[in-house]
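Is this the right way to post structure tokens for a design question? Let me know if I should format differently. Anyway, here goes:
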């Protein structure tokens, strides 16, 4: 098995559509879970999987608020309550799915929060790390028996190119001794998503569970809800009226394009003999160097097997 972090020439690209990536794929009989599968690229992931024949579970904090989003999907979508920030509810959700299913073929850890004001949850954990990483760690490990029963399961963890801003703050993950900075907090959470996928693959690849992390690309979705327009304008994403800028139009993806890398990593036969890799634009990403473009490639710290083991052990200790 190869775990080389380098493009493989998938034949797809940054603007490939979900329908292209899944063309000819039959997921009938497959069971999937998509966290955040009711909004933004998560909703398009759900839609595409349903269109390919899968049964899709969508955990949500408030089911009645998302039914309208899912109303036009013609297929089997099962909506139940779960809050990634409440680990008891995560464990209860995993148990409920386990009562209904004997195997889980695809787990898409898509949900997340970004650049939010400082918030503490659980055991005084910083919320971005807790929701984006700890919640998905607990969900995934609780569902491992189902994943192991699938005779070939894939877990996809949504990371972000923002991971290149920061490694894990190993000595101060929860900003207890340094001032909170929302983008650094987001960056370390996205690094954690990549390292978790790598660690999961290292532990369970030989038992039939593959894992990948992915950068979906730039997409304007409800993920940006904590950002004032002035900040998005300063980054070149919007104009003064809140409309997407011409610069962003050229760079950003639609929501259907934004879920394509998720779907490619979840289903591509080209990835059958590998795992633990970080993917972008429907391909494996190159390992970042000093010459890498700003918005592409994976930082060495997010592709480190040593870091993956360290994060796994640290996460288990935090959850005791």
């Amino acid at each position: 098995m190869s775990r080389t972090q380098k493009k493989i020439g998938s034949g797809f690209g940054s603007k490939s559509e979900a329908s292209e990536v899944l063309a000819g794929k039959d997921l009938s009989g497959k069971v999937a879970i998509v966290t955040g599968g009711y909004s933004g690229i998560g909703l398009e992931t759900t839609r595409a999987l349903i269109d390919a024949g899968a049964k899709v579970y969508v955990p949500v904090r408030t089911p009645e608020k998302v039914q309208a989003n899912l109303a036009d999907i013609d297929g089997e979508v099962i909506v139940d309550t779960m809050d990634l920030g409440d680990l008891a509810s995560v464990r209860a959700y995993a148990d409920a799915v386990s009562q209904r299913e004997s195997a889980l073929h695809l787990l898409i850890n898509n949900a997340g929060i970004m650049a939010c004001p400082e918030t503490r949850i659980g055991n005084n954990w910083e919320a971005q790390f807790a929701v984006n990483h700890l919640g998905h760690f607990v969900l995934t490990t609780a569902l491992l028996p189902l994943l192991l029963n699938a005779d070939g399961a894939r877990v996809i963890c949504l990371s972000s190119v923002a991971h290149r801003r920061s490694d894990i703050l190993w000595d101060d993950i929860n900003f207890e001794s340094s001032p909170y900075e929302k983008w650094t907090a987001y960056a370390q959470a996205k690094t954690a998503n990549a390292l978790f996928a790598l660690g999961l693959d290292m532990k369970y690849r030989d038992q039939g569970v593959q894992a990948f992390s992915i950068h979906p690309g730039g997409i304007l979705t409800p993920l940006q809800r904590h950002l004032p327009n002035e900040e998005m304008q300063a980054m070149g994403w919007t104009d003064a009226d809140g409309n997407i800028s011409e610069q962003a139009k050229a760079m950003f993806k639609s929501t259907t394009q934004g879920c394509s890398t998720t779907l490619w990593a979840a289903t591509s036969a080209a990835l059958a003999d590998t795992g633990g890799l970080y993917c972008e634009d429907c391909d494996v990403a190159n390992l970042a160097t000093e010459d890498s473009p700003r918005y592409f490639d994976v930082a060495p710290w997010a592709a480190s097997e040593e870091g993956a083991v360290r994060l796994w052990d640290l996460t288990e200790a935090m959850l005791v």
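Format looks fine. Someone answered above. Worth noting: Residues 182-204 form the longest helix (23 residues). The beta strands are 31-34, 55-60, 77-81, 106-109, 120-121, 125-126, 153-158, 209-215, 278-280, 283-284.
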